[in-house]
Amino acid sequence: MKRTTVLIAEDDADDRFLLQTAFDETGASEKIEFVENGVELINHLNQIASGNTDTNLPSFILLDLNMPKKDGREALKEIKENPSFRKIPVIIFSTTKNELEVTRCYDLGANTYIVKPVSFDSLLKTIREIRSYWLSTATIVADE
């Protein structure tokens, strides 16, 4: 049986390190995978969908907005337009607090929008809550 996977799209190496540490410190048993931009994100999902990897589609995607090559908005739009991926919950995880940006992300199909916490303690709390909700409380459609 394949392990539950969380896919994180984040271009900043320090943020990736902090996120991995936060998942580890909250007792995550799920596999945490990172991609650094929207192009890698879409390519990774396509690889999984084609069966060219031993990973399931992720239980959810944590998506930064401001990334090189293809930003989070473009990637979100592609994910939600693709029948193979559109049911994957996408959590926008960004420093952007702009109300128009938040609305735009929801219009593109984001499942939730979270502003990145500024302290590590707040990050731990946020990751604990994300994991609790999306991996325990919410009912998520399995891959088809």
From TrEMBL:
InterPro entries: CheY-like_superfamily, Sig_transdc_resp-reg_receiver, TCS_response_regulator. Keywords: Phosphoprotein. The keyword Membrane does not apply. GO terms for biological process: phosphorelay signal transduction system. CDD domains: REC_Rcp-like (cd17557). SUPFAM superfamilies: CheY-like. Residues 5-131 form the Response regulatory domain. The keyword GTP-binding does not apply. The modification 4-aspartylphosphate is found at residue 64. It comes from the Bacteria. Pfam families: Response_reg. PANTHER family: RESPONSE REGULATOR RCP1 (PTHR44520:SF2), RESPONSE REGULATOR RCP1-RELATED (PTHR44520). This is Response regulator receiver domain-containing protein. It comes from Sediminibacterium ginsengisoli. The lineage of its organism: Bacteria, Pseudomonadati, Bacteroidota, Chitinophagia, Chitinophagales.
